[in-house]
Amino acid sequence: MYRTHTCGELRIEDVGQEVTLSGWVQRIRDLGGMSFIDLRDRYGITQIVANEGTSEKVVTTLSKIGREFVIQVNGVVKERSSKNKNIPTGEIEIEIKGLTILSKASLPPFTIKDDTDGGDELRMKYRYLDLRRKVVQENLILRAKMAHTTRSYLNSQEFIETETPVLINSTPEGARDFIVPSRINPGKFYALPQSPQVFKQLLMIAGFDRYYQIVKCFRDEDLRADRQPEFTQIDCEMSFVEQEDILDTFEGLTKHLFKEIKGIEVTEFPRIPYSEAIEKYGSDKPDTRFDMLIHELTGIAKGNGFVVFDSADYIGGICAQGCAGYSRKQLDQLANWVKRPQIGAKGLIYVKYNTDGSFKSSVDKFYSQDDLKKWAEKFNARPGDLLLVMSGNDSHTLKALGELRLKMGGQLNLRNNNEFKPLWVIDFPLLEWDKESGRYHAMHHPFTSPKPEDIPLLDSAPEKVRANAYDLVINGVEIGGGSVRIFDSALQAKMFGKLGFTTEQAQAQFGFLMNAFKYGAPPHAGIAFGFDRLVSLFAGLDSIRDVIAFPKNNAGRDVMIDSPSEVTKEQLDELGLRIIQKED
Amino acid sequence: MYRTHTCGELRIEDVGQEVTLSGWVQRIRDLGGMSFIDLRDRYGITQIVANEGTSEKVVTTLSKIGREFVIQVNGVVKERSSKNKNIPTGEIEIEIKGLTILSKASLPPFTIKDDTDGGDELRMKYRYLDLRRKVVQENLILRAKMAHTTRSYLNSQEFIETETPVLINSTPEGARDFIVPSRINPGKFYALPQSPQVFKQLLMIAGFDRYYQIVKCFRDEDLRADRQPEFTQIDCEMSFVEQEDILDTFEGLTKHLFKEIKGIEVTEFPRIPYSEAIEKYGSDKPDTRFDMLIHELTGIAKGNGFVVFDSADYIGGICAQGCAGYSRKQLDQLANWVKRPQIGAKGLIYVKYNTDGSFKSSVDKFYSQDDLKKWAEKFNARPGDLLLVMSGNDSHTLKALGELRLKMGGQLNLRNNNEFKPLWVIDFPLLEWDKESGRYHAMHHPFTSPKPEDIPLLDSAPEKVRANAYDLVINGVEIGGGSVRIFDSALQAKMFGKLGFTTEQAQAQFGFLMNAFKYGAPPHAGIAFGFDRLVSLFAGLDSIRDVIAFPKNNAGRDVMIDSPSEVTKEQLDELGLRIIQKED
Question: How many other C-beta atoms are found inside a 10 Å radius of the C-beta of residue B280?
Fold first, then answer.
């Protein structure tokens, strides 16, 4: 061992001990007769001091070291004359007696500090240096702690962690698979799992009763800011349960994590049907840290000659408390914001509920003070508030209002990163119509059970069938989702039919699962948590990249190791593959 | 919830309670007026009884159920008249009041019992049914328990579990990689990791200090009985440590696992240099549950006119205690066994040390009783023992003797599956000459540090350089292996040179690692345990397949899901790939 103690370990009680520490040079200060080194490792920083009593040899070596050198220091623990209350080792320092340079260091391309000067691209290229920064290390330590706390909790609930295969087969349903050519089965391919869905269901059929796994999953998607081609799930499945049992169990896990990791008691997990979430929040993942609910005005705002409203399917808005004083410029900015292509609204109507009780709106031409008062009543608005109203196609308008609500919530500092508001969104639609392919898609996945009372609608009005599916949402982020599964091969076959599979296709792709149902399948249900998102939520971060040790960039590249990269002709020959011009 | 209790939960104290159980029908016995059902789930078996008081409705439903049906039973806990001491629920039974069939079951293709009638291929195709068997389930529960115990132990030692990427890049050194075409980077490929080696070293450079991960790794090899294309490692790395620290830490883990999982105190972890292991056991993974050491006779057996010996580089043998009475037939069988191509020996000489003190050998023509007595003394043989001697090229002969030793150990019942003898094999050679490529290969991997005192030999006699590398061996199985790493970019560059890399190749493949060394790398070392093998050792099994939920067969196929399989032309087009005739 190159040390007797870590750099975060020594305290005032250790004064007088002779110790050996190893670590990185964080900082050197030369004050003439005395030099100070801040020596850093994962555990902390300890001050090393050289003074007039330090040997010539050590002084000579000292003169050669610089930032990020790895050194080994031998010396005696002394009480500091000027103590540093900000760090746990701040009462002591090590009077240096021996010094060895273990590794030299070139000047790092950016400073190894919490507030580094390194840009994103540079920090990714030198990720091993970026990972030296305390803020980044803490995120990964948090991640490890959350994984272990999750495992301990689920183990205590009789769940068995079971590894499922990574080399499986490709299924065209859903997102694109990454595929892996098989050398010993020429012309054939494995695929990397988008989730262990089928395997966990088979484990239920096998009688495992309660399964979980913290597991890597893969999706070959065009990447966005918070997506990675490989991501980690807390994947779970239970037998002989109903929806309520799953919600209870995973409320339990979530509460336990908040308690153990953040010391927060989270008690309420309200349940909101999908339709209500859309209606009130314009989103199936509502941020409930603040109210500012969407209210519909379709009934009362039509018929006053304002063509935009009169021709709209839907009129609705939100009430921004205390914003009646917004300037022309502020209102224009909001209007421009909703007109951006990402939101795609046609315009934004405002109604100021002035503190004197009067109203001033952008539609005063069409609506009297009395009309606007009625609107204000709908919103429970008070003098000083600002109503923001949009109209158009109902689903688009609700979505745009949902986005505006989030923007206003942020602008008014109603979205506090240290407050956590979980909820369950339930009663999702089973199917959604896909215009492009001209068929229904499973909103969750094809194994999701319809609500028994809605099964008759499968033939008459498929879009009205509700699923026994649920999402856990915290602070507007979808943390987990799952469903009660179909466990009857006839119903499963019918489902595949609704999704446009021929009997042969269903048989070819999922035959083994439908076959398995024939040998006694228990009722079962499950859920998967997006572990990267859960950790980033706990860390108070916006991006999942900061909680992944070696993330890929938006082009799916690891710029540090330069991956993906070319392979040799021999490798391709062995696999029986040739690269061709890509067809556009 | 479909149950109030599991099938392993109810005891005599629960008599009188009304309960609901769900599970699989293990067995039905109809004794005229009474019927008994053994109801099974993961937790146990509970007896359900129907008698003359059972309702007509229940009796009708009862008549329809068969083996492996999933049913829900409602009833009252009663004390059994004839108790079953073999199962924890054996004192009670449930007098049935209500019965619901949750799922019907076709007759399974093999019986769901510990001693099933299903062949290997059939059980793999219906793995979800095979996994219902208690013996198989117990292996996977053991695996889960071992994983969690490992994690808890390493966490308690300040290790941080950190996920490393699965989509990395291909490196030609070592075994073949599985590669993954990248759609958004046409013509480029990811590769699946054979181990997280480089990433864990980067984590040390990043200051993580202690890393571990229970992680899937991948190797595209031609498969043998106990190999899988995807396998699981307990992968670890530590900073500021020397070899001794690693051995201590992982002895600690191993002892902890034996204690916690099997209730066994394993105390001794002898350390044997590689050269001694080869000399005494003919293997770098000696089974030390029994002695029967190899002894060299080269010095004393040459020069008696026996051409086979006189022309041999090496003569040596083992002493099989108490086997002097072996018949001609038994000795012939042994001779034929060592001549099989897998062993490849030319022949086998025997010397019987008769109980009357005389010797009888297959080389009596060349050696006197006195000569043979000298041999016997070398082996510390006693009257009644049998010496088995081989000769030839030294490494081949030692290997063949090692195999013969294991065979004799098995034959003499010296290899007890409930006894565990761990040891460390240390001081491995750094390099081994590869005839085919005409260059040195790294015996462990290219990042392994030579012993400092052997560095001068790197230029003069590379094959003599010993590495700071070590293997943990238990009962003749290599459970783990690792090394102290090079942490100096100049030495690493020299190593790549010795391995035949040009500077450009080394730079292209490992440039980022050598570059990382320039920014202050700590001394570091690590180890990886083969988790599948460790679990199968603990389970007393010979194959790792039995401790994997969904293993692949010897052709790398999952016969249950029929993977690998063909993909669509669209998928290949998107990836810019075409399947060509494989070049042989």
Answer: 21
Residue B186 has pLDDT above 60, yes or no: yes
Question: How many secondary structure helices (H) and strands (E) does chain A include?
Answer: 17, 23
Does one domain contain both A427 and A411?
no
Question: Which residues are CB-neighbours of A41 under 8 A, at least 6 positions away?
Answer: A6, A7, A8, A22, A23, A24, B207, B209
Scanning every residue of chain A, which has its alpha carbon at the shortest distance from the alpha carbon of B203?
A128
Helix (H) or strand (E) holding B505: helix B503-517
Contact B561 A131 (CB under 8 A): no
A383-400 residue pLDDT tens: 999 999 999 999 999 999
- Look at residue A116 and tell me if it is in a domain: no
How far apart (Å, rounded) are the C-alpha atoms in residues A81 and A95?
A: 12
- Residues of chain A contacting B203 with CB distance shorter than 8 Å: 128, 131, 549
**Is A474 within 8 Å of A422 (Cβ atoms)?**
yes
Contact predicate B14/B72, CB 8 Å: no
- Give ipTM to 2 decimals: 0.95
Contact assessment for residue B216 and residue B230, using Cβ atoms and an 8 Å cutoff: yes
The length of chain A, given as a count of residues: 584
CB interface of A with B, residues 188-247, below 8 Å: 188-192, 198-199, 202-203, 205-209, 216, 218, 220, 222-223, 229-230, 232, 240-242, 245
Cα A36–A39–A43 angle (5° rounding)?
Answer: 145
B172 and A CB contact within 8 Å: yes
Among B368, B347, B461, B473, which Cα is nearest to B420's?
B473
- A-chain CB neighbours of B548 within 8 Å are 163
Q: Which amino acid is at B282?
A: G
Q: Which helix (H) or strand (E) holds A290?
A: none
- The pTM (predicted TM-score) of the whole model is 0.95
The answer to whether the Cα torsion of B102, A469, B562, B548 is positive or negative is negative
- To test the contact with chain B by mutation, choose from A170, A563, A568 the residue with the greatest count of B C-beta atoms within 10 A, namely A563
The rounded distance, in Å, linking the Cα atoms of B94 and B36 is 10
CATH number of the domain where residue A364 is located: 3.30.1360.30
Q: Do B407 and B362 share a domain, yes or no?
A: yes
When pLDDT is averaged across residues B142-159 and rounded to a whole number, the result is 98
Give yes or no: residues A142 and A267 share one domain.
yes
Q: Write the secondary structure of A42-77 as one string of H (helix), E (strand) and C (coil).
A: CCEEEEEEECCCCCHHHHHHHCCCCCCCEEEEEEEE
Domain with B147 in it: what CATH number?
3.30.930.10
* 3-state secondary structure labels for all residues of B528-556: EEEHHHHHHHHCCCCCHHHHCCCCCCCCC
Contacts of B245 in chain A (CB under 8 A): 1
B77 and B34 in a single domain? The answer is yes
Mean pLDDT of B20-47: 95
DSSP state of A32: T
Identify whether A172 is part of a domain: yes
Q: CA B106 to CA A518: how far, in whole Å?
A: 6
Domain boundaries, position A300: 290-415
What DSSP designation does A261 have? I
**What are the two backbone dihedrals, phi and then psi, of residue A512, each rounded to the nearest 5 degrees?**
-65, -30
Contacts of A192 in chain B (CB under 8 A): 166, 180
B110 within domain boundaries = no
Q: Which two tokens stand for residue A164?
A: 């499922």
Domain boundary among the residues B52, B78, B103 is at B103
Place of tokens 């020397």: B242
User: Do A582 and B565 make contact, defined as CB atoms within 8 angstroms?
Assistant: no
Q: What is the pLDDT of residues B151-170, one digit of tens each?
A: 999 999 999 999 999 999 98
**Do B427 and B538 share a domain, yes or no?**
yes
Residue written as tokens 């460390």? B424
Q: How far apart are the C-alpha atoms of A432 and A447, rounded to whole Å?
A: 15
